[in-house]
Design goal:
about 260 residues, mainly alpha, Arc Repressor Mutant, subunit A
Length: about 260
C-alpha cells in the first residue's frame, strides 16, 4: 500500500491528468461565467500585466466576480496557468499536411516561426513552458506536427528528438531574450531602436568594445536608418536556415 501511495505522489501533476466532476449549476455561481471566459481573461491579464502581478483575486475583479466563483472551474492557480499556456499554444500555425508533396523544410519553418510569434506575443508563456509538462490539446497537436514533419526529413529516428530540441531550444532562447528586451524597453517608455542607440553611445568610446561595435555591421545598419526589429527578424531567419541546413546535412537518403 505504501508503494502505491509513493507512486501516486510521484506522478506528474497536471490539470490535464486530473479528473474533475462535472459542474453543477448553483445559485451563487455568476450567470454567463464559464471556463473558456476565465481562461481568455487570464490570457488578457497576463499579456497586459505579466506573470508576477497575476492573482486569482485580480482575475476575479477583471471578470466582475468573486475569487471563489473562479474556483468552481479550477482547483488551483497553477491549473489555470496551465490552461492559459495551452490556450496560447493554439495560436501557433501548423503546416498543411494534406499536400504530400510539401517541402518538409518549409513546414519546419512554419512551426518554428509560429513558436517564435507565440513567445513574442505572450512573453509570460516562456517561463510556464518550463514549469508544466505541456500536454494540453494544443501543445500536443503542435508536438505531434513537429514529429510528423521531422519523419519526412529523412533524419534517422534516433536523431529526431535531438534535432527538434536543437531547433526549438534555439527558437525559445532567441525569442525569450528578445521579448525580455522589448519588455524592458516598454517599461522605460522607449523603443528598441532608442535602447540600442543608447547602448551604442555608452560603449562607443570604450576600446574594449570596438570590435563588437564594428560600424560596418549591425551598428552601422541601425545608424543608417535600419530598424532593430528588422535586424532581429533577419538574424532569426538566417539562424533558422542554419538549423534546417544542419538537419539536412545530417540526414540519410531523404524523401524531398
Amino acid at each position: 500500500m505504501a508503494a502505491t501511495d509513493d507512486r501516486a505522489r510521484k506522478r506528474p501533476n497536471s490539470v490535464w491528468l486530473t479528473e474533475r466532476p462535472p459542474l453543477k449549476r448553483k445559485a451563487e455561481q455568476p450567470a454567463g461565467l464559464d471556463l473558456d471566459k476565465i481562461v481568455a481573461a487570464t490570457v488578457r491579464l497576463l499579456d497586459a500585466e505579466g506573470l508576477s502581478k497575476f492573482s486569482m483575486r485580480r482575475l476575479a475583479a477583471e471578470l466582475g466576480v468573486t475569487a471563489m466563483s473562479v474556483y468552481w472551474y479550477v482547483d488551483t492557480k497553477d491549473d489555470l496557468l496551465e490552461l492559459a499556456v495551452d490556450a496560447v499554444a493554439g495560436e501557433m500555425a501548423l503546416p498543411d499536411e494534406s499536400d504530400a508533396g510539401a517541402d518538409w523544410r518549409d513546414q519546419l519553418r512554419t512551426l518554428a516561426v509560429g513558436y517564435r510569434d507565440m513567445l513574442l506575443g505572450h512573453p509570460w508563456a516562456a517561463r510556464l513552458l518550463g514549469e508544466f509538462i505541456n500536454i494540453g490539446p494544443h501543445s500536443t497537436a503542435f508536438a505531434n506536427a513537429t514529429q510528423r514533419v521531422m519523419r519526412r526529413s529523412g533524419l534517422a529516428a534516433d536523431q529526431a528528438s535531438g534535432a527538434l530540441a536543437s531547433l526549438f531550444h534555439f527558437v525559445y532562447g532567441f525569442s525569450t531574450i528578445r521579448a525580455t528586451h522589448e519588455a524592458r524597453c516598454r517599461a522605460a517608455d522607449m523603443s528598441l531602436d532608442d535602447y540600442f542607440e543608447q547602448v551604442v553611445a555608452a560603449l562607443s568610446d570604450r576600446p574594449e568594445f570596438a570590435e563588437m561595435l564594428e560600424p560596418s555591421t549591425r551598428v552601422g545598419e541601425v545608424r543608417r536608418g535600419g530598424s532593430v526589429v528588422d535586424m532581429l527578424d533577419r538574424d532569426f531567419a538566417f539562424a533558422l536556415d542554419l538549423q534546417i541546413a544542419g538537419i539536412e546535412a545530417m540526414r540519410g537518403p531523404a524523401e524531398d
